[in-house]
Amino acid sequence: MTASLSPWDAIIGYLKSAGVRHLFGLPSDDLKIVSSLPSSGMDFILCKDQRNAVFMAAGYALTTNQMSVCVVGKGPALSNTLTGLLEAKNLGAPLLLLALGTGGDKLGTRSFQEADQISLVKPLVKWAYRVEHVDRLVWALERAAFLAINGAPGPVYIELPENLMDQPVPTGLQFIPPEKLSCSPSLRELDAAWEIIKTARRPVILVGGGMKSVTNDVIGIFADLCGAALFATASGRSAVDEEDELFCGVAGLYTDLSLRQIWKESDVVIALGSRLEETATFEWDILLEDTPLIQVNVELEDFAHEYRGIKVLGDGYAALEQWVQRYRHKHDGAWLETIRRCKQKAFSNRAIYLEELKKSPGIHVPELLEIIQTDFPEKMVLVQENGLQDMWSYFYPYFYFIQGSLSIVPSDQTSLGFGAAAALGASLATERPVVALVGDGAFNLFCSDFMTAVQYQIPLIYLVLNNGGYGWLQNQMNYKHLSGQSLPFVSEAAKTGIQIPQYEFVESLAIRSKGEAREQLQLAWQKYQENKLVVVEVYADLADVHEKISHVYGDFPLYEQQASKN
């Protein structure tokens, strides 16, 4: 009689060979995976909400730069993951989602929780596959893992029909762990881009999230050689040392007003590993009217066709290494002086603004960020949401990431609650301190999985900015003078405090005034070092918003020219 494995034994065996150490999710009610786990050495983080499970897995993947895995049931269990997959795809998070599916023997019979899961998932993943025979199981796992980490990383999906999970899989399988491949640009494309770069005197380098999967200092070397101003997209932050004298902040929507001049005067923009989403290109139509753009990406679909210039298909680091070898001329001293002067103005304005805040009551987010910057460990992981006030951390120089620290933010989809859940995955993935800066709306949406952190003793620090509800919507309503409407998005009742469950593992703190801010944050850090889950509730003023987003029109602020007329 031929020895065999159960399908879950084969799946767990492959994942272990691929270096997977944690699984996230909520398994199907048949619980067949449970018997395969004990001998694997893997931890299954049982979540309360499938959406949060994918967020956690994405946070884990973005922290490790390795594939993470999420396991769920069928039908509505799978549909609950779609928001998470939307984020993972837009973030470029390498993630494998395994979901049960209706057995082939019951398809089309209106069986319990039957759904066309492939059709639901396919637009949100790099590859979706339903395993119809056990002989294709390991092949599917190997292909999925390969696709998840190669090219532009992203989520992949494997559906496991119920009847398949009862079939034996032969033993003696040879598992092939996924191999990370490199993709060097062609010399023709490099030469075409070089013809523009070598004559540029006022270059700007834009670093996107696609450059965070590798640790390499060639970006800084290239910037030094050509005297380029360094910017990042929101998702590309921490790919370069933000203490570098050439670093000028976040592109587009989040660019400090003092640094807009750099974009206006630039004569070439080199975009590395960015899809050039709307937030990153905000105001480009007026700032870069005649400026050529060089885009470097590993995926064809990631190129933006709204701008003239050169497209280079391949790895951004490989392209930079080629251009570094060609550089022979000196950079423009006047351009460096422009960068220095603009940065000096930005930091001066920040200092003046912080001094003004000291005279006003309450605690303000910029003051909070200043304490975190000076009192918390330098090499930490800061996980952020994208709400009205947690967005302050996007605005350099109010916060900056030194070499060795890590920034995790939502994609341009900005799914509410992503940061709160992703922080748990990040904390499991690293020994570095993890701090999550979230709004009360996002935290409350995530709260079904607060117990997950307690159950698995996952330490981290939550800084919850409580403005009494959904501040972005209320701020927009106030700006449009619609505050008399019967749709309040914030309330004083909600601002009385969020409900934090009381456990020995949990430490609840509150900051109501600037006088207690430093003491409470230092206490938070002390409790975190005692392996606690710390929640610091910060009572935020709804009016505490950055000037760039004070003039709101729909999803985006008005352009500077429009805002000045209002």
What would you note in describing this structure?
By secondary structure, this protein is an alpha/beta fold. It has three domains: 167 residues, Rossmann fold; 155 residues, TPP-binding domain (Rossmann fold); 205 residues, 3-Layer(aba) Sandwich (Rossmann fold). It has 19 helices and 22 strands. It has a six-stranded parallel β-sheet with strand order 3-2-4-5-7-6, with helices on both faces. A six-stranded parallel β-sheet has the order 11-10-9-12-13-14. A six-stranded parallel β-sheet has the order 16-15-17-18-20-19, sandwiched between helices. Strand 21 and strand 22 form a beta hairpin. Helix 1 packs parallel to helix 6.
Task: Tell me the CATH topology of the largest domain.
Answer: Rossmann fold
For the biggest sheet, the summary is: 6 strands, parallel
Question: Kindly state the mean pLDDT as a whole number?
Answer: 90
Main CATH class of the largest domain:
Alpha Beta
Query: Which radius of gyration do the C-alpha atoms yield?
Result: 25 Å
Reading side by side through the largest sheet, how are the strands ordered?
3-2-4-5-7-6
Question: Would you identify the regions where 5 or more consecutive residues have pLDDT less than 50?
Answer: none
Report the span from N to C terminus: 82 Å
According to CATH, the homologous superfamily of the largest domain is Thiamin diphosphate (ThDP)-binding fold, Pyr/PP domains
Task: Sum up the overall morphology in one term.
Answer: globular
InterPro entries: DHS-like_NAD/FAD-binding_dom (IPR029035), THDP-binding (IPR029061), Thiamin_PyroP_enz_cen_dom (IPR012000), Thiamin_PyroP_enz_TPP-bd_dom (IPR012001), TPP_enz (IPR045229), TPP_enzyme_TPP-bd (IPR011766)
Domain Thiamine pyrophosphate enzyme N-terminal TPP-binding: 9-119
Family: Belongs to the TPP enzyme family.
GO molecular function: acetolactate synthase activity; flavin adenine dinucleotide binding; magnesium ion binding; thiamine pyrophosphate binding
